[in-house]
Amino acid sequence: MTICTVVGHVWATKKENSLSGLKLMVVREERGGRKTVSEYVAADLVGAGIGERVLVVSGSTARRASGGDERMVDSAIVGIIDSLEVDREHASR
Amino acid sequence: MTICTVVGHVWATKKENSLSGLKLMVVREERGGRKTVSEYVAADLVGAGIGERVLVVSGSTARRASGGDERMVDSAIVGIIDSLEVDREHASR
Amino acid sequence: MTICTVVGHVWATKKENSLSGLKLMVVREERGGRKTVSEYVAADLVGAGIGERVLVVSGSTARRASGGDERMVDSAIVGIIDSLEVDREHASR
Amino acid sequence: MTICTVVGHVWATKKENSLSGLKLMVVREERGGRKTVSEYVAADLVGAGIGERVLVVSGSTARRASGGDERMVDSAIVGIIDSLEVDREHASR
Amino acid sequence: MTICTVVGHVWATKKENSLSGLKLMVVREERGGRKTVSEYVAADLVGAGIGERVLVVSGSTARRASGGDERMVDSAIVGIIDSLEVDREHASR
């Protein structure tokens, strides 16, 4: 799961049927520090709001999490992060 | 799902049978800003046109979206973006 | 499998049901040297502690390792590394 | 699908059984311009030759395209590109 | 499949059960030239030795190659490269 911040919404009227009813949000991922920031779209499964830090799953796991193999989703928000504790001795940089 | 812009078409006469009848388009993805722009080919499932911003799914989800597990596709356009609202306070960079 | 160091914990009260009961840890991966370091979250399946080097699997393999296809996990710690022997003649740099 | 150029062949006598009989070719991918060029090996399913531009699929789609779930392939050439038309107004960089 | 060099071994006493009996090796991949070198761990299915160039598969294909869907592996060595012939006219750089 990647750690992302919810930064926006996206609307698409013309879309594959199985996406109807899903809330699609723009998330920003910082996997490798500022240089490799990326923004993409994830289906929100937990009621996340703008500015919240969330856990995002990808690939076939996101499809399954979104309601079964018929949902054409490859990225989904599956948790809202309450707290994150990183040991800077080991993660320093 | 990634946010892409449709930038072109690709034609292939000699191809795996299951690709017949699919409209193959070149999409440009900007996941991490200009430095990591990438262009690749996606099957268009929603009637997208050149210059439109679209949602693209990858991997096994794209294969399923394209008509079942027998379609040899790993990238597909599943939505045309009407509007995209990003909160610059949280996404600033 | 990627070689990671466990660097932290993450807590999420509001989450997809299938994540309940899983210990979620922050891992740091160094696939390509210092420049491409990335931190993300993995379900701990082997009782790993902060500072330990671990083996992490991704994608559908992580979901299966975490207890079956119903677990919405895409990254999991599956081993604690006792020792790692790299031949510097071949891996030099 | 990614756009690649076929640049070579690879031979492996000692290999997993299911790879027997497959033509393995080295392809060069240019997803993000010159800086992120990568070369890897794909099973050729369409009779591609050195220097030709081709469409390459990855992951479980490549395995299925190569003759079913028992083929241990994760990258396959599924089409030979006849022509590629990219709108430079939208793809300019 | 990616082209890697075997550069080491890894030992893990405490691990997910399905990894028992697998030989785990450290491989170095050079997909995009020296700048994007990465090292990770793959299950060796063909008796590879340190210094040999090998073909490595990833994802669900690696899991299947390693003995079925119950093996918690996402990277596997499936061939030892005898020779690799790359046309420098097309692959120059």
Secondary structure topology:
Five copies of one chain form a homopentamer.
Chain A: E1 2-11, E2 24-29, E3 38-44, E4 53-58, H1 59-65, E5 75-80, E6 83-86, H2 88-91
Parallel strand pairs in A: 3-5
Antiparallel strand pairs in A: 1-2, 1-4, 2-3, 4-5
Total domain modules of chain A: 1
Helicity of chain A, in percent? 10-25%
User: What is the strand tally of chain A?
Assistant: 6
What is the averaged pLDDT score of chain A? 87
The number of helical elements of chain A comes to: 2
CATH architecture verdict of chain A: Beta Barrel
User: Strands of the biggest beta sheet of chain A: in what spatial order?
Assistant: 1-2-3-5-4
Taken as a percent bin, the fraction of beta residues of chain A is 35-45%
Describe the structure.
The structure is a homopentamer of 93-residue chains. By secondary structure, chain A is mainly β. The first copy, chain A, is built from 2 helices and 6 strands.
Structure described in brief:
Chain A has 93 residues and is mostly beta strands.
Tags for this entry?
homopentamer, 93 residues, mainly beta, OB fold (Dihydrolipoamide Acetyltransferase, E2P), five-stranded mixed beta barrel, 6 strands
